[in-house]
Amino acid sequence: MDYLKAFLVGGFICGAVQILMEKTKLLPGRIMVLLVCTGAILSFFGIYPVLVEFAGAGAGVPLLGFGNVLMEGVKKAVDQEGFLGLFKGGFTAGALGCSAALIFGYLASLITDSKMKD
To answer: At what angle do helices 48-55 and 63-81 cross, to 10 degrees?
Structure first.
């Protein structure tokens, strides 16, 4: 049942984003920023953590989940360090995911024979 919930919620998020990409003139970079900010706002109001608990990776993996991770890190850092946590918390919480993406991306570039597009 967990797989079904993850598939349905993740599929809904991806489907909604695809519709947004097809029906608006927003550029993909702006849509990604919109998703991260939406995830952070939903996390601030306590909505997104409930969705992650329900759907697991279906809600945690998309860019909305990255916004949730950043906001949770900021909340935690503000509780521990006060005002300075506003600036520090997001970097601390997102560091592992960003580092993993860079490292595995680099390793994939070593393994594959990538070419520039013409």
So the answer is: 120
Euclidean distance between the first and the last CA atom of the chain, given in angstroms as a whole number: 45
Rounded mean pLDDT for each run of 10 residues along the chain, 118 residues in total = 90 91 90 91 91 86 85 90 86 88 92 79
| Nearest Cα to Cα of residue 76 among 84, 65, 85, 64 | 85
Q: What is the pTM of this model?
A: 0.76
Q: Looking at this protein, which amino acid is placed at residue 109?
A: S
> Hey, which bits of 35-89 come out as E strands?
none
Give the DSSP per-residue string, 67-81: HHHHHHHHHHHHHHH
